[in-house]
Specification:
mainly alpha; 18 helices; globular; transmembrane; membrane; NRAMP_fam; Mn2+/Fe2+ NRAMP family transporter; transmembrane helix
């Protein structure tokens, strides 16, 4: 039930979701597509924000009103479906977390000159430390909020130094020169695909903020989460656009670092190190927490030791990176593949929203159902399109 004094919790859930989205893949995807599409990328951002809000509104509301996590809702819709959804989420989350750990190592290398693998190990230790404190949930909330403000503030500074053509970007938002379906699905996948859209919703369930009475607050928090991630996306896009519009070419091995360095010199490069590290470590935390939240209800032992399982998840991600690595193209690929989970997850939620045994006497708004169905159809189509046409181009 909603209570006074929940502002910190709601903001924490919003920032947890947003900072889970703002990771190394987010930074890489934004700069890669800005260089490719230039000002027309603003249209892609607008489309992704609309889709993100529709998906997030539906999923968070249904989780809150059912008072259950997504995997249990899915099992209520069709026995066994929750296990499939959990398997997809955990597998995708592990792949994403390898990239997050890689980004944290890179941030440490840029900022302090550490070997990337050493930086990755130390960053993994910081993430693990959050889950070793007594009030792990609150520690996670505060960490996400602080790092979120740091990332946005520093990116705003770099954006102003890049002097982007804001007027052109605004015009192309509604009249793009080209429409890139792969870019749209990649951005949606990187913002609300896979585990990400469930991060804040599951956090609110864990904190006891649920039920019909809490819906106004849950709705505000869900939209705020997309707003925070979108603000970061827009500022980063404008920074990259300012650099590219001046005729500079981004380093394909590390596109976002190029943006910060070309826009603000050596200081910009150090700022990139801070932003990359903050983005990566908050994503490590959010990814591990949310992925494990998808399996913790399956057995009492998993519930009892879920914090230690989260620690194991972070440790495994770190060891995989140290052994294998994570190139730029894989970060873009995982974002696209993660978007394929969204139609399944959202489709299940929409069915659940109209099952009385799951939501009781709650009546899901018709416009949200229609909006959600449209997103399921559109993302299914774009997902198949990207698999057939777009993704193979990445590896030519």
């Amino acid at each position: 039930m909603a209570k006074k004094g929940n502002t910190s919790l709601l903001l924490g859930a919003a920032f947890l979701m947003a900072t889970s989205a703002i990771g190394p893949g987010f930074l890489t995807q934004t700069t890669v597509f800005t260089e490719k599409l230039l000002a027309s990328f603003s249209f892609v951002i607008l489309m992704s924000i609309i889709i993100d809000i529709g998906a997030q509104l539906n999923i968070w509301r249904i989780i809150a009103v059912s008072e259950k996590r997504a995997q249990d809702i899915a099992n209520d819709v069709l026995p066994g479906l929750g296990y499939l959804l959990a398997a997809l989420i955990v597998a995708g989350g592990l792949a994403f977390n390898v990239g997050n750990i890689a980004g944290a190592g890179l941030g440490g290398n840029v900022l302090l000159g550490l070997d990337i693998k050493v930086g990755a190990l130390l960053s993994g230790a910081v993430a693990i430390g959050i889950f070793l404190v007594r009030e792990a949930g609150k520690a996670m909330d505060h960490f996400a909020q602080i790092m979120g403000f740091v990332m946005i503030g520093l990116t705003v500074y770099v954006m102003f130094t890049a002097q982007p053509p804001v007027g052109e970007a605004l015009m192309k938002t509604f009249a793009p020169d080209q429409i890139d379906i792969l870019a749209i699905i990649t951005l949606v996948g990187g913002t609300v695909g896979g585990y990400i859209t469930f991060a804040g919703g599951h956090r609110l369930i864990d904190a006891g903020l649920k039920g019909k009475e809490a819906l106004p607050e849950v709705t505000r928090s869900s939209v705020s989460a997309i707003g925070i991630a979108s603000i970061m996306r827009i500022f980063l896009f404008l920074a990259a656009l300012g650099v590219v519009a001046q005729g500079f070419t981004l380093d394909p091995g590390n596109p976002p670092a190029s943006v910060f360095r070309l826009a603000a010199g050596d200081i910009g490069y150090k700022i990139f190190g801070i932003v990359m590290w903050a983005a990566a470590v908050t994503s490590v935390v959010g990814c591990a927490y949310t992925s494990v939240s998808f399996i913790r209800t399956f057995h009492p032992t998993l519930e009892k030791y879920h914090n230690w399982i989260i620690i194991g998840f972070i440790t495994a991600s770190t060891l995989v990176f140290i052994s294998v690595g994570q190139p730029v193209k894989i970060l873009v690929l995982v974002g696209s593949l993660n978007a394929l989970i969204l139609p399944l997850a959202l489709g299940v939620m929409l069915v659940a929203a109209h099952r009385a045994k799951i939501v009781g006497d709650y009546k899901h708004p018709l416009w949200m159902t229609i909006f959600g169905i449209f997103i399921v159809i559109a993302m299914s189509y774009m997902g198949v399109y990207s698999l057939v046409n777009g993704i193979p181009q990445l590896f030519k």
